[in-house]
Write a structure and sequence with these properties.
The chain has 275 residues and is α/β, with parallel strands linked by helices. Helices cover 39% and strands 22% of the residues. It folds into two domains: 35 residues; 236 residues, 3-Layer(aba) Sandwich (Rossmann fold), CATH 3.40.50. Strand 11 and strand 12 form a beta hairpin.
Length: 275
């Protein structure tokens, strides 16, 4: 049952509807768990509204998040934003491409005349992502295996890890990192610098990077936002934010660049004001 705070924030009808949908998905997932044993690189034919995609998930366990992708019901709010906001010919930067589910929805939305640059930091996910982009013949998608961050030059990930959080926790602890032959080192990049170097100026920047969206936005120079006016769409992960760098901090940062900031359920959308 949704909390009073959720009811107040989202509205009774939406909150109750969301709770019912979630309960239904939970029941379906747990009833399907026995048949959803991972088969290495098994390819799933997935329909997301009017888009058909083909994905594998490597040898990863079929978690609820993966099951939702298989069923084509992962984060319907995000799906609706992508399909309604993106137009043929748009350029997109996606930070946190994971397995390519949303990357391929973006690819279909911008069409052959558009472009998507997908950035994924975790090496295991990146290998799966690369296969899925190739499998779907998404020739309008380019990929980078890179980590968004400025604290260090690179992040070390365990080669056999099935989750990125070991490397992320090490990065956040600000320990001195040395090259380790037993681990996979992924370069840390500065988003503003990369976009200028590649001469790639997206109309939309999507982010799902578990709290690193604060650092990513800080890396975008105000002159870049003033010059190219990309619309920013990101999941907010307030539990990961520093106490002085929450949603209000991001709003202040973006409003200083003449951006309108709106909270849309689990997402923040920021776009250049029209005067």
């Amino acid at each position: 049952m949704p909390s009073f705070k959720t009811l107040k924030r989202k509205g009774v009808r939406y909150a109750l509807g969301s709770a019912l949908r979630k309960s239904g998905h939970d029941i379906e997932y747990f009833s399907d768990r026995r048949r959803l044993k991972p088969t290495p690189e098994k390819v799933y034919d997935i329909n997301v509204d009017d888009v058909n995609i083909h994905l594998d998930f490597g040898d990863l366990p079929i978690s609820k998040a993966i099951w939702q992708r298989i069923e084509g019901v992962r984060e319907p709010d995000t799906t609706a934003i992508i399909r309604s906001l993106l137009r043929p010919g748009d350029k997109v930067l996606e930070l946190g491409s994971c397995f390519g589910y949303f990357t391929l929805l973006m690819s279909a939305s911008v069409g052959e005349s558009g472009r998507v640059l997908g950035v994924e930091g975790f090496p295991k996910y990146f290998r799966i992502l690369s296969r899925n982009i190739t499998r779907n013949n998404a020739t309008n998608v380019d990929l980078m295996n890179a980590f968004i961050g400025s604290k260090k030059a690179f992040v070390n990930f365990e080669d056999g890890a099935i989750s990125p959080y070991g490397g992320i926790n090490s990065y956040n602890a600000e320990k001195v990192i040395e090259h380790d032959s037993e681990k996979v080192a992924v370069e840390c990049i500065n988003i503003g610098q990369i976009l200028y170097e590649k001469n790639y100026h997206p109309s939309h920047i999507f982010m799902d990077i578990d709290g690193f969206e604060v650092e990513a936005i800080e890396q975008l120079p105000s002159r870049y936002l003033h010059e190219f006016n990309p619309t920013l769409i990101f999941e907010h992960h307030e539990k990961f934010y520093e106490s002085n760098k929450g949603i209000e901090y991001l709003k202040e940062l973006l409003s200083g660049c003449d951006y309108e900031v709106r909270k849309v359920y689990g997402n923040i959308i920021a776009f250049k004001k029209l005067f």
